[in-house]
Amino acid sequence: MTETVENAARADRRPPRDKRRRPRVHRAWIVAAVTFVTIIGGAAFNSLPGLLIDPLHTEFGWTRGEIGLAVAIDMALYGLTAPFAAALMDRFGIRRVVAVALTMVAAGAIASVWMTASWQLMIYWGLLVGLGTGSMAMAFAATVTNRWFVARRGLVTGILTAAGASGQLVFLPLCAWIVDRHGWRPASITVALAALVVVPFVWLLMRDHPADVGLAPYGGTYREKPAPARGAARRTVRVLFDAARTGPFWLLAGAFAICGASTNGLIRTHFIPFAHDNHMPIPVAASLLAVIGVFDIIGTIFSGWLTDRYDARRLLAVYYALRGISLLFLPELIGSDVQPPMIFFIVFYGLDWVATVPPTMALCREQYGEDSAIVFGWVLASHQVGAAVVAFLGGVARDVFGGYDVVWYAAGALCAMAALMSLVIRRRRAPGDAADGVPDAPQPVDAGGLGR
After folding, report:
1. Which residues of 355-381 are buried (b: 16+ CB within 10 A; e: fewer)?
2. What pLDDT digit, counting tens, does each position of 287-316 carry?
3. Could you give all domains of the chain from N- to C-terminal order, each with its CATH number?
4. Does the reported pTM lie above 0.85?
């Protein structure tokens, strides 16, 4: 009897489940690692368009404007799908949405092997791949970060954002070698297989919420998993209309549209054809883009670290200004071989490639709270619309002017505008307390349209 009482007393002294000894590696980091690999798998296809413009033009006789239009559809859908994907993840869970998205990317890439007309290019590359990659866009990274992390959000955002650059680093040289030696079709099959390989990892290792495994978010306190959010599309549109009544949304969206125009739309799509116009071999140009990816990883993670410590608005202004300056010099640096000034541009531009993402996400969280992942999805949509416009117009400019110089100069000027737009975003404060940083409710745009 005495032994039974003592055992019961010891049981009463046991800590609750959530206070027992945790594994040394928090599950949040495993989820972040799976997310990183998933984004790499989905980003594999983004390595292809710049490599395939010339081969498709040569084989089918399609104009660069037609090919650019297919890439533009892909980029636009990538952006427009993102906010709905964030809401669908709230409704159906991250695993299901991402697994379906990876399958769509693979289907589009494989189907393109048998295309014979430009409208098929727009269906396979534009529609299927655009919807699939859009469902694994940076809104996916924002959803994972918001659910699984309280501490180190800026750092994790930087790491997950760098995943796209890591995919570029892995797949660009490989795909360039395949295109050069074996043609564009084997390269398309390669990225399809890369997407399919990731699906089992997502299904087995990804979890939708820390509560699924009885944990608190990293650096936070335990919270029950919320009920599935119904009416995903309606909620996504409602969040857009609410955010559109505030000045910061338009400033963030406008600056991020310029970000997309000066990265995905311009460099990722047209740098290799531009370098080839200047007699640089395609594998060499692809290797330079891969090097951009190396320094992008460094720059984006460092940007996440800075975002945890400094004013996100000023960081954005510096990033956009430096990017604009570098683009203005590019036409003078390109040549048939790689000289030291060109290497300096690649390193400098690479550090800045998507360093804008962590501070932009931080400003969305500051301004829009629980809806920030969906709001960032809409801001990302503007990024991709900007990229789509330049992907198309860049091809048209090449057809009309016989070169890309005017596009680089225009992009440099736009980046200066983005720097100014970032600086005039007003910080959000709680009523009666200008120091604690607790957000108040969004306010309508004022008469000047720049503040709340």
Report:
1. bbbbbbbbbbbbbbeebbbbbbbbbbb
2. 887 788 778 778 888 888 898 888 999 999
3. 25-219+227-423 (1.20.1250.20)
4. no
